[in-house]
Amino acid sequence: MHIGLFIKHFFSFFVEPLGLVMTLFVIGIFFLFREKIKMAKIFVSLTLFLLTLFSYPPFANLLIEGLENHYQKYSGNEKVHYIHVLGSGHNTDPKQPLSSHLNAAATKRVLEGVLLYKKIPHVKIIFTGYEGKTKIPTAQMNANLALALGVKKEDMIINGAPEDTRDEAHFAKSIVHEEPFILVTSATHMQRALTLFHKQGLHPIPAPTHFYRSDNNSLFQSPVPSALLKSKVAMHEYIGLLWTKIRN
User: Fold this and answer.
1) Which pLDDT tens digit goes with each residue over 129-154?
2) Is the separation of the CB atoms in 113 and 85 below 8 Å?
3) 3-state DSSP helix/strand/coil percent for the chain, to nearest 5?
4) Are residues 129 and 178 located together in one domain of the fold?
5) Do 1 and 118 fall within a single domain?
6) What is the pLDDT of the chain when averaged over all its residues?
7) Nearest to 20 by CA among 237, 238, 235
8) N or C: which terminal CB in the chain sees fewer CB atoms within 10 Å?
9) In Å, what is the CA distance from 97 to each residue of 111, 114, 145, 152?
10) Could you tell me if 113 and 170 lie in one domain?
C-alpha cells in the first residue's frame, strides 16, 4: 500500500464511528486512572451515547439516505461503449469458492456490471482496483467472477494499479476520453466517485448498486450492529467527500 493511502486510512479510522468511540473510551479510562473522575465520566458517557446513536437504525438510515437518495437504479438506454466497475475488497483464500472471494460491495458491483453488459450490445467492461493486502488485484478478482458469469475475456479491460477512486478516474480517462460511459459503484460511494470523475472532464452515467437504506422508518427500534456498520460506511463517505473538496 502506498504510504499516502495508508496515512489516509489510518487517520480516517479515528473519525469514523468505531474508531471515534474507542478513542473517547480510552481517553475516559486515562482520566479514570489519573483519578479525574469528572472528566472520566464525561468521556465514558460520551462513548456510550455515540455508540448507541451510531447503532440506532433510524439514525444510521438517515446518514445513509443523505448519500443514496441522490441516485436511483440505472434504467436508461444510452448507447455506450464502456461500463466501468469500480473496485472494492476481496480475499484470495483458496479454500473459499469464487463467489466468496469478493466482499458484498464488490460482488454487487460486478453483478450489476454483468447485467448491464448483457443488455447493451458491443460494450466493454473496465475493472480497476489494486491488490490491497493480497497478491492479486481486485480488478482481476472482479474479472474472474465476470468471466464465470459469461462476460467474454476480450470484452474486459483490467487494470490492477489504481489504489483509490481518483486513480481509477485517471485510468478511465485514458480509455473513454470524452465519451459518456456507465459508472458502476455502491450507491453510498457514487456521489464522491462522480465528483472525482467529473474533475477529470469525464461524462459518467451513474448506475448505483449495493444500497444500504431501509424502508423501515419506525423510531421504535433498538441499537443493532448492522446499523453501526451503516453509520461507518456513511461517515467514511462523508469524510471522503470533505477530503475531495479540500484537495480540489
Assistant:
1) 999 889 999 999 999 999 999 999 99
2) yes
3) 55, 10, 30
4) yes
5) no
6) 92
7) 235
8) C
9) 16, 19, 10, 21
10) yes
CA 193, 198, 204, 207 torsion-angle sign: positive
Question: Domain check: are 40 and 129 in the same one?
Answer: no
DSSP string covering 155-197? GEEEE----SHHHHHHHHHHHHTT-EEEEEEEHHHHHHHHHHH
Residues 190 and 91 in one domain: yes
Residue 26 amino acid letter: V
Cell numbers at 83, concatenated = 461500463
User: CA-based angle 133:245:63, to the nearest 5?
Assistant: 75
Number of domains within the chain: 2
User: How far, in Å, CA of 35 to CA of 171, rounded?
Assistant: 55
Q: Edge-to-edge, what's the strand order for the sheet holding 156-159?
A: 156-159, 124-128, 82-85, 180-186, 203-209
The verdict on 193 and 95 lying in the same domain is yes
Give residue 118's domain range. Answer: 82-209
Q: Are 151 and 47 contained in the same domain?
A: no
Q: Which three cell numbers stand for residue 6?
A: 495508508
What integer pLDDT is reported at residue 3 of this predicted model? 64
- C-alpha grid cell for residue 209? 448498486
Beta 156-159 vs 203-209: how paired, if at all?
A: unpaired
Residue 110 inside a domain? The answer is yes
106 closest CA partner among 149, 138, 68 = 138
How many CB atoms within 10 Å of residue 120? 17
Asked whether residue 76 is assigned to any structural domain, the reply reads no
**Cα first-last separation, the chain:** 23
Q: In CATH, what number is assigned to the domain containing residue 114?
A: 3.40.50.620
User: Do 40 and 86 reside in the same domain of the chain?
Assistant: no
